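Next up, a specimen:

>
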Amino acid sequence: MSIRINKEKCVGCLKCMKVCPGTLIKEKDNKVYIKYPKDCWGCVSCVKECRFGAIDFYLGADIGGNAGTMNVSYEGDILHWNITKSDGTKKVIDVNSKDSNKY
């Protein structure tokens, strides 16, 4: 499992770097990067923390993703889980952040 960081969308807030449990995300010139993507644990903490959609999580076949990607955007208390399938189709799953840890 791995992530991909889009430097064009990164605003340098460093929130993703602070929540990465493996300390895999690094900073250079006020932008973040992951030096060894193959070492990513797939916890998606960084993806959930990025409010700018700059981090894509690779949805591998082992978890039913078939090479799609997922990132998160926010609208108030609503998290939009933006999924792009390998064929280019998109799906959005909305989660109220106030209820996200309820279960």
